[in-house]
Amino acid sequence: MAIEFSERIRRIPVYPAAGGYATEGLALLASNETPFGPLPAVREAIDGAIGRLNRYPDPSNSLLRRRLSERYEVAPSRIAIGNGSCDILLAAGEALLEPDAELVYAWPSFSVYPHLAAASGAHAVTVPLDARQRHDLPAMLREITVATRLAIVCNPNNPTSTAVPLAEIAEFLAEVPPHVCVIVDEAYCEFNLLEDPDASIDLLDAHPNLVLLRTFSKVHGLCGLRVGYALCGSDELPRAVDQVRQPFFCNALAQAAAVEALAHQDAVTDRVTRTIAERISVDERLRALGLEPAESQANFCWFTLGPDRDEEQIVTALRERGVLVRSGSALGSSEPALRVTYGLPEENERFLDALAEVL
Ligand SMILES: Cc1ncc(COP(=O)(O)O)c(C=O)c1O
């Protein structure tokens, strides 16, 4: 007899993770990781924490929250830590949503968002992106009702790489009723040149319902350890997400690495500069191939392939040439499209040469 699972399990979509992890020698441009490894000082901090692995990690993540508080001038009680920012996102869904509640987000956007409604039984209201593949915030606002508990704005948006200016987010927040939690998912904010990545923090004081979701996975290059954080307008969400999760959700090595990573903002600036140089040159080469990449403010690009091209065939042909990219349809695109992370210069070369050959 087969095991009988809950109704929830039949609803929850399987996360479309990229493949290729077990294959050596591929240019890994499918998961929006950074090509730069952990800094030497971060490795040392991890080494230093290994000797204490017989002890549980600090359950309140106090040093990491203190360092984040100093860095962003947000009280530690208004900071949530997670086993990756996804952990905070899923916990927020659990704390906020239930059957008959509504959740509003744009689509295509981050592939974890559909999980929130499926897991809770809440109703997901998805709002199409505008013609420039950006969030349509006025349209999202129109979908907010008395039943809405959570609205998510992914800025810059995964998978389309675009960002909306902060002024538009501020206008949106001014109209959202205070009972609705607004998560602005800023996993890629360091790569956004539209404004200072820290400018959104000023909005927290005026909006107790605002949550800025951030991560050490991307620019800090620590996705293998899993650590993310949320800067919040009040202490309500940090308390709620701690209530629904297991204790000790953030491991000791991740805490030590994140604390050290925060002390190296110069490395962040250097990585962002190098990534943006690649962004400019890759996008230029894509345009020379007749493609029209969306205006990227992230560490990846997004472009449609045209209705006559076979997306899967192209993804497979690129893989055969040693380059792993993501197919747009797996990420919610209704037309053939690709999402490609900017890697090291030699990886980007390999991708562009392979793409030119395949097209
Ligand atoms: C928009 C967005 N938010 C959140 C995450 C989750 O990051 P992590 O759980 O590694 O912090 C990702 C990862 O790709 C992402 O693209």
Strand order, biggest sheet?
2-8-7-6-5-3-4
| Beta fraction | 15-25%
Give the CA-based shape. Answer: globular
Which class of secondary structure composition applies to the elements? Answer: alpha/beta
Using only C-alpha atoms, the radius of gyration works out to 20 Å
Bound molecules: pyridoxal-5'-phosphate
User: What is the tally of helical segments?
Assistant: 12
Distance between the termini: 50 Å
| Strand segment count | 12
Q: How much helicity do the residues have? A: 25-40%
Average pLDDT confidence is 96
Could you characterize what this model shows?
The chain is of the alpha/beta class. Helices cover 36% and strands 15% of the residues. It contains twelve helices and twelve strands. The protein has helices spanning 7-11, 40-50, 62-72, 85-96, 113-120, 137-142, 166-175, 236-244, 252-262, 265-288, 311-320, 345-358, and strands spanning 27-28, 79-82, 102-107, 123-128, 148-154, 181-185, 210-215, 228-232, 300-304, 323-324, 326-327, 337-341. The chain has a seven-stranded mixed beta sheet with strand order 2-8-7-6-5-3-4, sandwiched between helices. Strands 9-12-11 form a three-stranded antiparallel beta sheet, with helices on one face. It has a two-stranded parallel ribbon with strand order 1-10. The protein is globular. The termini are far apart. The model has no long low-confidence stretch (mean pLDDT 96). Bound molecules: pyridoxal-5'-phosphate. The site of pyridoxal-5'-phosphate has 13 residues, from helix 4. Pyridoxal-5'-phosphate binds at residues 32, 84-86, 110, 154, 158, 185, 187, 215, 217, 223, 228.
